[in-house]
Write a structure and sequence with these properties.
Length: about 120
C-alpha cells in the first residue's frame, strides 16, 4: 500500500523517520511520474501504523492486535518496519509498478488476515 496508494500516513517514533525519508526518496527516483508521497507523523508509542489520510488503518506493526480488517505484524515494530521498508525497496528495484508478477499472481487468493494471525501465533 505504501507504493500503490495515495494519501498514506505512516505514524511511528522519531527514530523511524530516516528510513522513511530514504524510502520516499527511492520512490521518487523509481516512480518519477508520482507527485505525492506518504507522510510521516511522529508519535511516542512503540507501534508503527500505516493508514490513509482519512484515518483508515491499513496495517500495524507491533502493539496489541487491531481488528481483523487491519494487517497486523506482531512483535517488534522495528523489525516489522524494516521488513516493510526492505520489501518496498526490492519491489522498486525490480521495476514496480511495471514489473510483471512482482506483486503476486491474479490466481492468488485474497489476503486472509484471520489465517495470517493463526500462522504467526503458532511461531
Amino acid at each position: 500500500m505504501l507504493l500503490r496508494e495515495e494519501d498514506v500516513v505512516v505514524r511511528a517514533p522519531a527514530e523511524y523517520k530516516p528510513s522513511f525519508d530514504q524510502l520516499c526518496l527511492h520512490m521518487a527516483d523509481c516512480m518519477p511520474a508520482r507527485t505525492t508521497f506518504p507522510i510521516f507523523y511522529e508519535h511516542h508509542d512503540d507501534v508503527v501504523t500505516i493508514e490513509s489520510t482519512t484515518s483508515f488503518l491499513f496495517a500495524q506493526c507491533g502493539g496489541l492486535a487491531p481488528s481483523l480488517d487491519v494487517i497486523w505484524l506482531p512483535g517488534d515494530s522495528a523489525a516489522s518496519w524494516g521488513a516493510i521498508h526492505d520489501m518496498c525497496v526490492e519491489l522498486l528495484d525490480a521495476g514496480y509498478p511495471g514489473c510483471i508478477g512482482c506483486v503476486g499472481s491474479p490466481d492468488e487468493p485474497p489476503w486472509n488476515e484471520t489465517e495470517h494471525r493463526k500462522r504467526v501465533s503458532n511461531h
